[in-house]
Amino acid sequence: GVGIGAFHVVVGDYVPPFRGESLRPDNAQNWWRHQVAELGLIGALPSLWLSALILALLWKGGAYVEPFGATTILRMVLVGVGLASMVGVPTQHPASWISFVTLLFWLAALYQTAGGPQGQSQRPPSRVWWTSAFVIAGIAAAGQAVAARADLRVPVRAVRSGVHFKYGFTPSEGPSQFGDLRWAAARAVETLPVEQPWLEIALWAPEPDVQSNPVEARVSVNRRRRIAQTISSNEPVVYYLQVPTDQQQVILEVSASRALDSDHALRVAYQWMREVPRATPPERVIPY
Fold first, then answer.
1. What is the pLDDT of residue 184?
2. Is 89 exposed, middle or buried (0-12, 13-18, 19+ CB in 10 A)?
């Protein structure tokens, strides 16, 4: 699943950008499909099971009969909500949802009052039911956490939908021999349009005590660790990273073990290169 309440946010990411179209924030046009899309199949099991129980209640009816046909009216209203849910999500509005569960409770209470010997008490849910509920919730939450760090992560969605995304990097502060200079926070991410086969990247750790207390710098491209460098001087550390040319964008991630403040950890400059300059040390060339 894409996450509770997240369908409206991510639905626009699933239209190929070359089509020149966009999807407005919307629901999945079907209540059950919407549940599965947001919660995943396992996370939606309670909702699907509840729907089956409601259908059984509406189909079988009950022993309660009275002149004004209250149960008939309640059943018809609930059936109408179900039919509307086939082509939309009418109970997404709080007022509609509260009305729906109120009518459902009323119908179930009428049937329960009419059925069974007077004074018969219902047994509370067994330990198996409670355990199953917690297991389903745990599996659904674990799946959400894994998806949030993988396919549903914001920069990954940005690459898929062809939009630019950046956080942790400051705007350009001017040119240098390695490209535009900028600051990176302790964790910074940016999606870059691929322009050439090689990305030249330079890193500085402008800490006053960097010689006695080195900074650990990490650089990843498309979530693959490409650089792990201990910086112990104020001189730039330059690498050449080969990138996949069959992709329109790549995800560049930079992290540092410590920072001057929340926005300043490393000085970073990068630019696209057609080829690696001659006499570059082999350890500075990172093939894909």
1. 93
2. buried
